[in-house]
Amino acid sequence: MTGKPWMTRMVNATVKHGSGFAQPAGAVVFMYSALEIAMRQIRADDELNGLAAGALTGAIYRSPHGVKASGIGAGAGLALAVVWMLANEDSRRRFSEVLNFA
Fold first, then answer.
1. Which molecular-function annotation in GO is an example for this chain (predicted)?
2. pTM
3. What's the rounded Cα separation, in Å, for the pair 81 and 86?
4. Which of 101, 92, 102, 1 is nearest to 47 (CA)?
5. How many Cβ atoms from other residues are within 10 Å of residue 18's Cβ?
6. How many CA atoms lie within 13 A of 33 on its CB side?
7. Which residues, 6 or more positions from 8, have their beta carbon under 8 angstroms from its beta carbon?
8. How does pLDDT run across 30-56, given as a tens digit for each residue?
9. How far is CA 31 from CA 7, 11, 35, 61, 74, in A?
10. Contact status, residue 65 vs residue 82, Cβ threshold 8 Å
11. Helix (H) and strand (E) counts for the chain?
12. Is the torsion defined by CA of 21, 85, 53, 60 positive or negative?
């Protein structure tokens, strides 16, 4: 399928199934943001807060499915936070500064 029928099919699928992705994604983003803000209140404002918030978000989000799933979620959250940090030039610079002081 190409052209207009393909585009119509993609638009219909997005509208029909988009909310199934949007709700969990919104919950994860909210948890990550809230945990990162809480971490800033507890300790210094640096990039380690974002990494910890990513790991905690993954662990909390998957916690109803058991300890193993929570650990996998923490690893996935940490991995996504690392990718996000490495993709942002300012975050890379601040993280290298944190490592130089350690």
1. protein transmembrane transporter activity
2. 0.76
3. 9
4. 92
5. 10
6. 6
7. none
8. 999 999 999 999 988 888 899 999 999
9. 34, 29, 6, 9, 13
10. no
11. 4, 0
12. positive
